[in-house]
Amino acid sequence: MSSTTLPPPHPDRLLPADPATRELARELLSCVESLPIVSPHGHVSATMISNDTAFTTPADLFVSPDHYVTRLLHANGSSLASLGVGVAAEPHEVWREFCAAWHVFDGTASGTWLVAELHDPFGIDDTPTAHNADQLYQRIMTRLGEPSFRPRALLDSFAMEVLATTDDPLDDLSAHRSLRDDATFACRIVPTFRPDAYVNAHAAGFVNRVDRLIDEASEGRSGYDGYLAALRHRRQFFIDAGAVAADHGVRTPLSLRLDRSSATSLFERLRRGDVSRDDRDAFEAHMLYEMARMSVDDGLVMTVHPGSLRNHHPDTFAQYGPDSGHDIPIAVDFTTSLRPLLSDFGTEPGFHLVLFTLDESTFSRELAPLAGFYPSVYLGSPWWFLDAPDALMRFRSAVTETTGFSRYGGFVDDTRAFCSIPARHNVARRVEASYLARLVGEHRLSLARAREIIVDVIDAAPRRAFKL
Amino acid sequence: MSSTTLPPPHPDRLLPADPATRELARELLSCVESLPIVSPHGHVSATMISNDTAFTTPADLFVSPDHYVTRLLHANGSSLASLGVGVAAEPHEVWREFCAAWHVFDGTASGTWLVAELHDPFGIDDTPTAHNADQLYQRIMTRLGEPSFRPRALLDSFAMEVLATTDDPLDDLSAHRSLRDDATFACRIVPTFRPDAYVNAHAAGFVNRVDRLIDEASEGRSGYDGYLAALRHRRQFFIDAGAVAADHGVRTPLSLRLDRSSATSLFERLRRGDVSRDDRDAFEAHMLYEMARMSVDDGLVMTVHPGSLRNHHPDTFAQYGPDSGHDIPIAVDFTTSLRPLLSDFGTEPGFHLVLFTLDESTFSRELAPLAGFYPSVYLGSPWWFLDAPDALMRFRSAVTETTGFSRYGGFVDDTRAFCSIPARHNVARRVEASYLARLVGEHRLSLARAREIIVDVIDAAPRRAFKL
Amino acid sequence: MSSTTLPPPHPDRLLPADPATRELARELLSCVESLPIVSPHGHVSATMISNDTAFTTPADLFVSPDHYVTRLLHANGSSLASLGVGVAAEPHEVWREFCAAWHVFDGTASGTWLVAELHDPFGIDDTPTAHNADQLYQRIMTRLGEPSFRPRALLDSFAMEVLATTDDPLDDLSAHRSLRDDATFACRIVPTFRPDAYVNAHAAGFVNRVDRLIDEASEGRSGYDGYLAALRHRRQFFIDAGAVAADHGVRTPLSLRLDRSSATSLFERLRRGDVSRDDRDAFEAHMLYEMARMSVDDGLVMTVHPGSLRNHHPDTFAQYGPDSGHDIPIAVDFTTSLRPLLSDFGTEPGFHLVLFTLDESTFSRELAPLAGFYPSVYLGSPWWFLDAPDALMRFRSAVTETTGFSRYGGFVDDTRAFCSIPARHNVARRVEASYLARLVGEHRLSLARAREIIVDVIDAAPRRAFKL
Asked: Is this model's pTM higher than 0.95 or not?
């Protein structure tokens, strides 16, 4: 295994091989490659940016917090402990283990991003191996000590214009507020309201969190009324701090409209623990409906990320906690699940609902038809396992013939891997250029129009869908 | 947004970019591009053809009745009322709204058809815009006044050889009969028996329609026996008027064999309204089974269009009626659902069952395996949201490796958009040429054999499957 | 229909048309085209190899036992009886029927294999037709009489290194033992433990088979304990005879952990016939779980083939028996179904679980994410209807971006069609070369690394996953 694993990023990487189509793709890519990044959904920490905390080690930057990376290393025989997932680990050893197993990322989306990240900003084109691991570690450490490698400087170098974080409803958003008030920092960091922990009635600790929410934010009201009031109140608090969206990570997109008295009674039974599994499902479905109602009222864009069975392996969850790499997708039905919600809110002026999926079979079957009728529904970009060059292309091919380009919600990187942000956006731009180049080459679009479309898709779409 | 949206139809449009493959595709396309059109399933009005009624306005021809077009305009902010859907609207204004939003069709199947339709027969290559809308309106109006733009003359110019309509079982088919008796009109217009309104036990007004069916067609028999007799009688009436097929638009392809006494008792309870939701489902499943039995007996080809949740948005349905653009697909199971029907009729000589789907995941998983065993089962061409260049190609790639070409039911345009008929068939021919060109280029077929296959797929397949 | 149907196998067959990509694919193919064949799952008879029985007729070699071939002939109008399926038939007539319908295989995977098989080893490049059928029959018969066309000589000429059979747990494996002891025969023939008939509680005759299993192998223990002991005992017997894997053909991959007393009581009720349909499902799910436990203990690789509804057409099953061409896939859920099994065994050292599917929608949604976390889970190669050039390519595109290449279980031919074995492996090698050529052409991998990967995927992957 002595050969170079991945070449350094080639200017034509990910562009189609046919020479004429590649030439068109290059031309289209040139329209967008250097545009600023608008990132309306992700998992970077606002506090880290606010404090401009230097990154500590290559292990913390590239390996331990990135479950895309650690899961595949785990599948190939590493223990999560040795990768520093959820537990402390010696960073040199984490890095060595990562470098020694570099080949497992060949052909993966993560591999593509990692190559780009090492090259830019770190200037590393050597393939990591067990042999050069320590040397690479040192080279990266040297850089991490430089001012230009602090989070804010990196965001500047990424040309980040907007970066959304994902936050607990009771977060005080002080980091966001201080960033907003800082005239020396141009990038707009906006919080996202993520109420899962307060509406997911199956989660351990749900009742305690609800109690705390009511205590802190209901302004004296109690019970179900206080609960709704507290959620509304915190949403407004987020809006005041710059939030544009509320995000909902649900197992299924089931929605249900309960009348007030049924909802109240179910809520009280939940707090007493006097409920069945179906009751908990019903409450969650009802709350998805209520969250849509609140979005109609307060204007927060509603984003829904359904269809992941979280923490599939109980022992790993017990030992390493959530987001440790074993959330596994399930088949999802949007059409019937969302019908109650869309029946009542789907044509409400100003309501924006961005739907994400991990189930490709819904691309053409459900999502494109829904977004092709409801003015509120936007197509979320391919998510997680599907945020990868071929999968992005399958998405384009599956939805565009029904919805065109106008119903797209824009690319979303959805990442906690800081340095992968520009790499991910760059990949998405290359895929759009390649797709449009094919349409032009097949005489389905003029080149002039394709130039306009790629700018719209990359730059205008996320601003439009996320009200930026 | 000043550029030309779509170029006028290019001779190589939709053909693959690789030069050698394109050359093969051109050669294969030339074998079929000018063949007559056989259209065994669609929604054009026989009365309009019989009366040879001139089209009234561009809005009525291109916009208001075409839910492919109006749904996407609606998603992008138009009200259905302003598009003349289900209500009267000023046609100039409908047309202006359509032209101003022309860009939303970029990359869509509808966009491809519309460009072709404006070019031929209307000679228009200008991209519609808000600015040229009135001028285009006038140019089209001028043409619509000419004799060569009447329905019959257009059908002649389309080289239509067979055109099937879709009709209510109690239709008197007088238009079909007069067309058949008209020696001056060569195109064969055949009715299709569509009994949904009389077998869908969930639909409002079901019982009244059943009563009327029994009154008008049971020849004195009553109850369940009279109901079946009336259906049989009307099928024969359709056959006598030239029908070759019966079409079934069902939510699911569930089939169920009830014995006569159970069916009779369920039917009586249905008429009294003394039924559960499950009872209604059971009746529908039983009637799909009975319809197959009738097809075995009388030879009408059975076509099934399952998996659309009709009228997803209740308010829109209440205001604008059915077919207003919010029928949304759901996941479909064919394998277990059709088992009762296929167990009893799947190998019956002469029985033809053409299966359509909106759920791509069934292409390779269920439809190709079923059509690859049962002599009765034919693969319906990709339907509705899937009648689009890339989706047609995915269908070919997904089913051909299991079933070859012989189990294909032929392309079906399934449209009420009159001028789109030749455009749709032309797109299908281009996709077949492109697919076969790839197989030839990859040395999977000889060019000589591919020439034979494309003629068979385009011309012979629909005649074979639909007994034309 | 006079043209040549399929050209003789072209050196570039199945390689991509773009000239530069094809050149890369040729180069990558050359790294693996002549490597020995490792075939860790299939349905060839060990007795036939042990006895080195000459093949009798072209009909028996190419048609009657191959349900891929007979099903499509049946769909196109042949009776299974006339093809010699499950009943005796005059072989000349079977062969004539096959040759006359040769065109139905155009574009199919079977067609690709058949062309290759006729060419090599039989030296036939003529397209079979009704006219040359008798002459081809004679040419093949002549060859079948030659020593070099006996099974062992053919396996040598195929460069078979390992060939796994699939065997009943009570098989005495004498053929395997005699082959292993035969120093003149180099190919390693290994049995595979397939306990379906003894764990599928829905199958007719289940209780009798279980009784016999306990009688023969429980070493005096009785009841549920004896049943488990007998299974363990026979697994060890297989291991001693060279087995590396146990194969499980289940309708769904549902797994369930019953405690010992529940399992015992359910088992006793099953033997008395005192069970519901759900009870039978529960027992099967529990036994899939127990089989995983046994694999953890004894090291047999566990392979699971779920999602086929066997014997869809009851009359055909009654007349022709199982494997007569009407097993039809259904949608499958792996994520929730396998959770009990993976929760307890998914991270057990040495446990290997190879998952196959007939449901493409699970490629990216479930299988890649599972194999991308659990060290035990390997991706089975596309199975049955999906073992075809385009489907293999869709698999690669769907899973590689999540799992890379390291989680692949290697190509499996899974066939009883003896001469198709090298043809199938050759197709898989061409697809891998084409896929990797695209990645190299798109600058996603270096050519040097792609050369290493293709050797790993073709040669090392099956050895790794199947512990060979």
From this structure: yes
